[in-house]
Amino acid sequence: MADLLLKVDHLNKDFLAGNGLFSGRFGAKVSAVKDVSFEIARGETLGLVGESGSGKSTTGRCIIRLINPTSGTILMNGQDVARLRGRALKHFRKEVQIVFQDPQASLNPRMTIGEIVCEPLIIHRIGTRGEQIAAAKELLETVGLNPEHINRYPHEFSGGQRQRIGIARALALRPKLIICDEPVSALDVSIQAQVLNLLKNLQDDFGLTYLFIAHDLGVVQHISDRVAVMYLGVIVEIGSVQALYGNPQHPYSRSLLSAIPVPDPKEQKSRHRQLLPGDPPSPIDPPSGCRFRTRCPKVQAICAAQVPELQEVAPGHFCACLLAKPYGL
After folding, report:
1. Going by DSSP bridges, is the β-strand pair 71-76/79-80 parallel, antiparallel, or unpaired?
2. Which residues contact 150 (CB under 8 A, 6 or more apart)?
3. Contact at 8 Å (CB) between 290 and 322?
4. Between the N and C ends of the chain, which has fewer C-beta atoms within 10 Å?
5. Residue ranges for the chain with pLDDT beneath 70
6. Residue 37 contacts residue 11 (beta carbons within 8 Å)
């Protein structure tokens, strides 16, 4: 990519199974993220989609160092995020922020919204107290809230308004990258479009780059430039919105796209829904070879013996399927 901001290379994250006294005693591990690699250019939005439990949020939290990866490399502006310590890590926190899924749980109920938005400025010692308050009012106005409500508490706002407060907090340090962890999934459908349009406008105004995590492919299509599809901790397909939605190559991607509802009742009735049998396997004991093979309608014997790698099936379009035809062949 011409202007690369973030590069994730062979990222892995394992958790010890169980929460009790003997968790992990017998070596059981949950492979939440397995050999994930992708890049994000400056000013781009990469959508990361998949079922619940596919490893999307874990990937985002590894990138921002809320949790440490088991192995792999995360490069931000060419700098290895895992090696950052002290002042370098604090500076990295300014450049990468996150908007959480639940706007109620992510805001301190004992703090006013002014204190919430000012908190990043206080931690990083940016400006005087008066300048911080002025900046908070400006940010609240930027996200569509009344700056005169700066002394109100989160419970006095609706869900959509609380998410706008979370976005204002994320913008306070003027970050380069914002990880949006399902930012609209807890909101009413009528409010989702408002928040998505706000994020797109802010991207243009502030020159932001997004990693947009969601399970709703309709939402991802509206805001993303490229889309990566995850299944059971691995990326199975990645490409531009036009390529992935217009010509999906992986059977899992096809199934997800067939579930997107369309406004026309006649067209919806005539569509063929590609239902997948069974449930996703346990990440403690994933299938050998291709992790999707136990639910794949086109599975063959080779799928159990060989792990598929991402291969280019069209310019800029990659798919991890042994049956996919490589580009140029």
Report:
1. antiparallel
2. 112, 113, 114, 133, 136, 137, 140
3. yes
4. C
5. 1-2, 18-27, 262-273, 329
6. yes
pTM over 0.85: yes
Q: Give dist(CA 234, CA 126) in Å, integer.
A: 40
In three-state secondary structure terms, 60 is helix
pLDDT of 279 reads 80
Phi-psi region of 293 (alpha: psi -120 to 50; beta: other; left: phi over 0): alpha
Q: Which residues are 41's β-sheet partners?
A: 4
Backbone angles phi, psi at 66, to 5 degrees: -70, -30
pLDDT, one tens digit per residue, over 104-163 is 899 999 999 999 999 999 999 999 999 999 999 999 999 999 999 999 999 999 999 999
CA distance 104 to 76: 30
Nearest alpha-carbon partner for 213 in 13, 17, 59, 87: 59
- Contacts of 219 by beta carbon, 8 Å cutoff, 6+ apart: 184, 192, 196
Instruction: Report CA torsion sign: 273, 274, 279, 283.
Output: negative
How far is it, in rounded angstroms, from Cα 2 to Cα 143?
31
Task: Give CA–CA dist 319/239, Å, rounded.
Answer: 9
CB count within 10 Å of CB 20 equals 7
One-letter amino acid for residue 243 of the chain: A
Give me the pLDDT at residue 26, please. Answer: 56
Q: Under a CB-based contact definition with an 8 Å cutoff, are residues 171 and 203 in contact? A: no
For strands 79-80 and 317-319, give the pairing.
unpaired
Residue for token digits 């939440």? 32
Q: Residue 209 pairs with which residues in a beta bridge?
A: 177
